[in-house]
Amino acid sequence: MTVDEKDSKDLSCSVVNLTKALVAIPSESSRSNLPVMQQLCTFLYSQGFRVTRYPQNGPSTGPEKTNLIAERGNGTRRLVFSGHLDTVPVGERGQWQHDPYGAEGIIGDRLYGRGTVDMKGQVAAMACACASVPEEVLRNLTLTLAITGDEEIGHVGIKDLAAKHVFQRAVGCVVGEPTGLRVVSAHKGGMTVRITVRGLSCHSSKPHLGVNAIEQAVRLLNLLGERLAPWCAQRHPAFGEEPPTFTVVGVSGGVADNVVPDSCTVNISARALETGHFETFRAALEGIISELVDNDTRKGVPPERRFSADMDLLKWAPPMVCDTAGVWYRTVARIAGQEKPEFVTYGTDAGVLNQVGLPCVVWGPGDIIRAHSVDEYITLEELTTAVTHYRELICAVAASELPTFTTSLWNG
């Protein structure tokens, strides 16, 4: 066996073992992420990384969370790899044919378990790639792992980390979501708003004495398609003919079958192509609310019976667009053997990092279709191929003179 073959075999064992170790620790966003972060840190310390932990700000009654920056090398330039270790819930255990925490080990070429493909496998691949590069390659490069939690509930971890940590002289960042190792240069941003429609409660046997908040909410819902059509007609060169979209994701109202409801909430999720599209989206919704109020006013409806609603922002994350003519994107695309830029419609932590000035691509092993699914899995070949590609990128950046960027602090 040659030295290269031995290194390849050792890497394969390391990335699989690290993925298994991370998957074995439940880390749904509702839990503390300290145990899974400690497992990762055990590996990082053993490989000589310098690790800084940043306690994550959050509700005092919630589980304790942390995010981390791990560094290897002492170069003046920096290459960033970003990933998250929180997962969506397992759901009904009885629906899983395979243990969601990977206790069965490798079955064929697959490692099953919650988070294998979204995205503990990617974190393991990035960590192993960074650990495997010889010190002499890093004379003028510092490898930086930015590992966070709470991505699944609004990119909370990366926002908190980016509000505390500045990435200095970085050439770019790889966010390792499952893209089938296709280089993603753009993705949509996301926003969820809640509109609370108010009514007037009374006994349901005399509904005319009240104002049914659910029926008032229906008035608003009936206007969405027409009034938001101009917003949906916007385009961006990075997304071709892909439009911004919105959808109603929740409606709730009523307390009993003998009470006319005095409140109804409508949750609307929007996916935008540009950060500025979110402001025009909110303005359009405010315009619909004002239109309904004005219509009632013109009809002489008493003030207490006119349409009434408030809007609150529940969460948002910016889109990501990478300059595909720039040397950073072209370097990654060359290693991936990819000729044409690609975009995705879901969001990632790259949106936040891009917003603070860090050029990003989304590039990782596995298929997004398996994410958040029963019997989620990643293959051994996907993991080891990712390590190889990440190593190639590290070596390419180390040998290049890519321009560098220093980020600002997140204040969104």
The radius of gyration computed from the alpha-carbon positions, rounded to a whole number of angstroms, is 24 Å
Summing up helix and strand content along with how strands pair, one would put the structural category as: alpha/beta
Strand content: 15-25%
**What order do the SSEs take from the amino end to the carboxyl end, as H and E?**
HHEEEEEHEHEEEHHEEHEEHEHEEH
Query: Total strand count, please?
Result: 16
CA-based shape: elongated
Unreliable residue stretches: none
Task: Explain how this protein is built.
The chain has 412 residues and is of the alpha/beta class. The protein is 33% helix and 23% strand. It contains 10 helices and 16 strands. The strands form 4 sheets. Strands 1-2-6-3-7-15 form a 6-stranded mixed β-sheet, sandwiched between helices. The longest helix is centred in the C-terminal third of the chain and has 24 residues, at 275-298. The mean pLDDT is 95.
Notable traits:
412 residues; six-stranded mixed β-sheet; alpha/beta; four-stranded antiparallel β-sheet; single chain; 23% strand
What would you say about this model in short?
By secondary structure, the chain is an alpha/beta fold. It has helices spanning 3-23, 34-46, 116-132, 156-162, 213-227, 229-232, 275-298, 327-336, 350-355, 380-398; strands at residues 50-55, 66-72, 77-84, 106-107, 110-112, 141-148, 170-175, 184-187, 189-198, 245-253, 263-272, 309-317, 320-321, 342-344, 360-362, 377-379. Helix 3 (116-132) crosses helix 10 (380-398) and helix 5 (213-227) packs across helix 7 (275-298).
